[in-house]
């Protein structure tokens, strides 16, 4: 809601990729250079292997007034700055899927020529899509393992929660809705209280109660170690992809 659709110009090779933009009231084109001519803030949302060709195409049109934001996984600020004119204001952004429901977790890093103004602009625009934090570039691959891929870990956990309830006799649809609300409420408490999750977990446990018995089973299944390992391997894979 911060930018009117008429102020947005989207470019893609095929009409199929532009339909959603048109439905939202945005202008569309098949010419990347047209975007550069009409816009100052330019988002590059291509597959990583496609990006070098796009940068080569737009390079002649990039000027000192442009702010270029890349969403391409694994493409470093150093690479972006090398493929664009010297002095270009470049930022690197990594969102996650829940941005589509304004509950995303995003991090960004700025290149050497992007100043506080560009960082503030990007953070202000993206705050309507969820949490947005500026970080050192080295954190971006960790964010991929934690949050980009982490959404899938949460879905797996939600599915398991619901299936446990189905096993005990609750209808599947109801179990899924309650599982989702449970995750939403727990996450909201973490964000709003600022408490460490261990403290909040302890608050739920009563001596000899249901929760501590259930947590014992999760510990026997090495839930924490398994999730930590998942974040580690996803982060390492993101780093490896950046080298490819």
TrEMBL record:
Principal subcellular localisation of the protein: cytoplasm
Residues where NADPH binds: 32
Pathway given in the UniProt record: Amino-acid biosynthesis; L-proline biosynthesis; L-proline from L-glutamate 5-semialdehyde: step 1/1
All copies of domain Pyrroline-5-carboxylate reductase dimerisation, residue ranges: 137-241
Region forming the signal peptide: none
Pyrroline-5-carboxylate reductase catalytic N-terminal domain location: 6-74
Enzyme Commission code(s) on record: 1.5.1.2
InterPro entries: 6-PGluconate_DH-like_C_sf, NAD(P)-bd_dom_sf, P5C_Rdtase_cat_N, P5CR-like_CS, P5CR_dimer, Pyrroline-COOH_reductase
Domain of life: Eukaryota
Entry keyword NADP: yes
Localization per record: Cytoplasm
The keyword ATP-binding is assigned to this record: no
Record field: catalytic activity: L-proline + NADP(+) = (S)-1-pyrroline-5-carboxylate + NADPH + 2 H(+); L-proline + NAD(+) = (S)-1-pyrroline-5-carboxylate + NADH + 2 H(+)
Enzyme class: oxidoreductase
Pfam family, one: P5CR_dimer
SUPFAM superfamilies: 6-phosphogluconate dehydrogenase C-terminal domain-like, NAD(P)-binding Rossmann-fold domains
GO molecular function: pyrroline-5-carboxylate reductase activity
Keyword annotations from UniProtKB, A to Z: Amino-acid biosynthesis, Cytoplasm, NADP, Oxidoreductase, Proline biosynthesis
Binding positions (NADP(+)): 45-48
PROSITE patterns: P5CR (PS00521)
Cellular component aspect of the GO annotation: cytoplasm
Quaternary data: Homodecamer; composed of 5 homodimers.
HAMAP family, sorted: P5C_reductase (MF_01925)
Job description of the protein: Oxidoreductase that catalyzes the last step in proline biosynthesis, which corresponds to the reduction of pyrroline-5-carboxylate (P5C) to L-proline using NAD(P)H. Proline is synthesized from either glutamate or ornithine; both are converted to P5C, and then to proline via pyrroline-5-carboxylate reductases (PYCRs). PYCR3 is exclusively linked to the biosynthesis of proline from ornithine.
Family (UniProt): Belongs to the pyrroline-5-carboxylate reductase family.
Protein name: Pyrroline-5-carboxylate reductase
Gene: Pycr3
């Amino acid at each position: 809601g911060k930018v009117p659709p008429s102020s947005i110009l989207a470019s893609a090779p095929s009409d199929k990729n532009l339909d959603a933009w048109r439905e939202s009231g945005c202008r569309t084109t098949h010419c990347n250079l047209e975007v550069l001519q009409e816009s100052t803030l330019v988002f590059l949302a291509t597959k990583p292997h496609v990006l070098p060709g796009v940068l080569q195409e737009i390079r002649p049109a990039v000027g000192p007034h442009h702010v270029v934001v890349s969403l391409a996984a694994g493409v470093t600020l150093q690479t972006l700055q090398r493929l664009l004119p010297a002095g270009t204001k470049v930022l690197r952004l990594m969102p996650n899927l829940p941005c589509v429901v304004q509950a995303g977790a995003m991090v960004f890093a700025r290149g050497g020529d992007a100043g506080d103004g560009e960082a503030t602009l990007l953070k202000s625009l993206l705050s309507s899509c969820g949490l947005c934090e500026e970080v050192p570039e080295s954190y971006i691959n960790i964010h991929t393992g934690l949050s980009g891929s982490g959404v899938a870990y949460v879905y797996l956990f939600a599915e398991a929660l619901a299936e446990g309830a189905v096993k005990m006799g609750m209808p599947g649809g109801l179990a899924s809705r309650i599982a989702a609300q449970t995750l939403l409420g727990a996450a909201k408490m973490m964000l709003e209280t600022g408490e460490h999750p261990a403290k909040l977990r302890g608050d739920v446990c009563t001596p000899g109660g249901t929760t501590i018995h259930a947590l014992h089973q999760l510990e026997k299944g090495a839930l924490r170690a398994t999730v930590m390992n998942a974040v580690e391997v996803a982060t390492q894979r993101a780093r490896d992809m950046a080298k490819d």
